[in-house]
Amino acid sequence: MQFAVLGPLAVRRAGADLDLGTPKARTLLAVLLCYPGRPVSAPFLAEALWGDEPPKSAVKNVQTYVHRLRRRLGDPERIASRGRAYLLRVDRAELDAARFRDLAAAGRTAETAGDLPGAGRLLSEALGLWRGPAFSGMSGVPVLTAEAARLTEVRLGALELRIDVDLRLGRHAALLGELTALTGEHPLRERLWAQLMLALYRSGRRADALEAYRRARHTLVEQAGLDPGAELRHLHQAILAQEDTLNPASPQHGTALAGPSGEAASSRSGAALAGPSGEAASSRSGAAPSGPSGAVPSPPEEADSTPLSPQDGEEPSSPDETAAPPPERRPPVPRMLPPALGDFTGQDMELAEITAWLSKERSPDEATPVVAVSGRGGVGKSTLAITAAHRLRPDYADGQLYAVLGGARPHDPYAVLGRFLRALGVPAAALPDDADERCGLYRSLLADRRMLVVLDDAWDEGQIASLLPGSGGCGVIVTGRARLGGLAGARLVELGELADSDGERLLHRIAGAKLGQADPQDVRSLVRACAGLPLALRIAGSLLVSRPHWRVADLVAQLGDARHRLDGLRYRDLAVRASFELSYRRLSPAARRLFRLLGLLEAPDFPAWTAAAVLDAETARAQGLLDELVDVNLLDVVTTFEARARYRFHDLIRAYARERAEAEETPEQREEALIRAFGALLALTGFVFRAQTGYDELTRGDAPRWRPGEVTGAFPPAADPLSLLAAEGPALLAAIGQAADLGLDEICWELALGTETLFQARRSLDRWENAYGPALALTETAGNKRGQAALLASLAGVHFMRRRFDLAEDCCTRAVRLFQEIGDRMGEAQALQYLPYVLVAAGRLSEAIALGLEIRGLLTELGQTSSALDVYAQVGRALLEDGRTGEAAGVLTEVVAEAEASGNRVLIVRDSYWLALARLDLGRTAEAEAAIATLSARAEVLGATGSLYAAHARGRLLLARGDHSEAGWQLSAGLEAARGHDDVLMQVRILLALSDLHAGQVEGIRHAEQALGLARDMNDAVNTARALDRLARLRAAAGDHDAAARAGREAAAIRARIG
């Protein structure tokens, strides 16, 4: 697949252009192509698609566009999900912009090495990839506009270098037409004018070269108010003097505009206006501000021409009356930024956002543009701010002010103002004593200047209020651990962890030689151990460099134990633990305790009511403390469910929280908090079970529940109960393992049993079976027979859905025996409840009917009416499979009616499906349609299974009515969905319906054969016999009587075997 952005956006596969769909989808792909192989957050994409006012559903709409784009590309793996971000997988060879950069870089390398013909070929090939302006036709999207400007600038740099090469090869005459056109297209790029002048001069047209200079000077003065730069003036003087250095000694060794390194070869020969990368080196060249991955080198600094002096006509009264020497006529230009780090890696998207926002031209009377960068300790806020500030130097020629504000130990802004004023030329003796006067003088001095102010590690908005300039000509970057949402009009940039690929690049830049000798898997493991935190990665790299005897594998092993990982992430004065400690100290005592207790949980994320449970507090109280943790980036908000937030720890912060819990909480306090959290999950599973079935949990132990009302009240009334439970699925699995490790057998088996409702509906059979493993082992070790029996009875359902009928029957039998041993008659009856399912599926229909009626009576006697109704439904199914369709319809009608009355949503949906099929077999299509309407309205109760039931039943209804076209569409869509959900049984049913639809055609036989093959594969005797009957009928109709007879005999033999 080939992606093209150097011109109109295009994607080609196998040589053909793909239809990318709507303009929004095209824009989405274009933005992802700006950051190939890097995660791009959904909010960032939403802003790109809808601007500053996206709709409320923007993030969800982004998900929809991503889904559609995956289908258009024909490769679902192309766009990967990374939490709330998306990553487009693109090889460099697949993206024309990447190939362009690689070829241009190779051309620069060849030019530096003196291979001028090779350099010319490579640069020409790179430039030949351009089909027009980058992202042509996609205006109005700032990120694309910025990226297009950056690519255009790099293209012009490569073009200018290629022209330099041609000049050095003596091709000056051939360049004249091209350069004349280029100076017309880019009249403010002095380098192109210089190249045109040199080409004209070498072509013997000295007068035209001088005329070109006059045109260049006139254009620069008229359009930019500037005189030509020193380089262009020197070249003009050299042409006037006809200096020998302007004439090439030979085609291979002519005087170029740049020497081998890209720097000026001679101040008198038209010195280069480009650095090694081919980007503009002078602010006079018309260069655009740099984009995310490259910076335009700073222009020569010019002194401010505005003197800081008394007003016109005023004089100091006398030297004696002046306490300090008068200020200099030309105040200093402050350059207070720390050095930029040469190994800055990743965070390109945030860097682009900052530079784009602060590089815009604004008038002095506009509001000061402010970017507020927030993020957890060690995430790279300061590095990003300093890197951005260096990139922005050309836009703030009057200087850059910088101060560290102290974070958790906030510095007094009064003292910071004093340092800033001294940097601006105010003598120490002239500093105002009053804080407001200092602030006023500071803002007055900045009023007419282009000055960038960087305020690093701010405590809160109040600390920086007096440090903000009052002019739109200035810009501010402020960083802090807390989100500075109170800064009016500020651009808020939230900094997250590095992607794994960026983490590897950062490690390679710090410890490249050591990493080059390591196993790549060890390098990846080291990046994961550092959890994407730049500070941790920097410490790991420094440790490897400073300890030559350490291998990468040694450090990976040292960091492998999460309990001691923070001990290993320390190097001299750098320590991850100390970084977190600063944020922890600023919390209130209650928030600190919540932080510690939440760190005990293994759940990957959790809602507010989990925090309430560990604290044993009201949810509203816990919510306020969670907000406090989020504000200082000790906790992340990762997703929302029904507009309710979920929270997650960064891996290293979780380790720190657990350290604090072990140091500050007693073992009893820690276990009590966990038991409350587990109890909240048990309360939730009970709530969802009741919502789905209309009755209480069938089997329940003695594990405590934590405030069921508090938990259930935390959810919106309209929320789908199954989705509520799905949101807690990972937390449930983590809690099962944690309870098992703690030996809490009663809690463990009840948590495991609580997953049945979810995993059965979602057909998550592997997760269902795996969830029971630790609980079964623990209950067996602890001698907890009730727990064992309950789990075995439920596990029968897993085996049943996997078509492992012998194992399902064995689980039921073992569960019954255990319940009998402890004298639990109710448990025994509930374990028997699963047997009719197994017998129906195995084709033992007479047994199923007899046993089902017996168990129904037992459950009714024990008052378990809902369970009795479930068993009665299996009797109806057995009657339907046995061909007693009228009796089946009567039973199923009764079941659905009683389920409606009791609110058992599961039985309403499931048995409306079977009732619809019975009525269709009886030719009662109107009544079947009513059952299908009931099924369709509530299909989501059973998740994917409900949707498949509805698709199959609707297809059968349309077929019965003779609407073959619509039936074919409905059944084909259902078949595709069944394959997607790996529901083989439903595939068999739909294929048999399709064989009816295409009866008399070859396609009908093919569908029946496919159904037969699937039924055989899953050892389903009932459906194997049914498919053989269908095939016999179709073969006979096609005249193949021998094959029909064979199929019929085999079907009869199967029925005889299963009874």
Automatic annotation (TrEMBL):
Any one GO molecular function term: ADP binding
Gene Ontology biological process: phosphorelay signal transduction system; regulation of DNA-templated transcription
Composition skew (Low complexity), residue ranges: 258-296
OmpR/PhoB-type domain ranges (all copies): 1-90
Keyword Transcription regulation: yes
Keyword terms of this UniProt record: DNA-binding, Transcription, Transcription regulation
The UniProt record lists the keyword Secreted: no
Domain of life, source organism: Bacteria
Coiled-coil stretches: none
DNA-binding region, residues: 1-90
InterPro entries associated with the record: AfsR-DnrI-RedD_regulator, BTAD, NB-ARC, OmpR/PhoB-type_DNA-bd, P-loop_NTPase, Sig_transdc_resp-reg_C-effctor, TPR-like_helical_dom_sf, TPR_rpt
Residues covered by region (Disordered): 247-344
One Pfam family here: BTAD
Family: Belongs to the AfsR/DnrI/RedD regulatory family.
Protein name in the entry: DNA-binding SARP family transcriptional activator
Originating organism: Nonomuraea fuscirosea
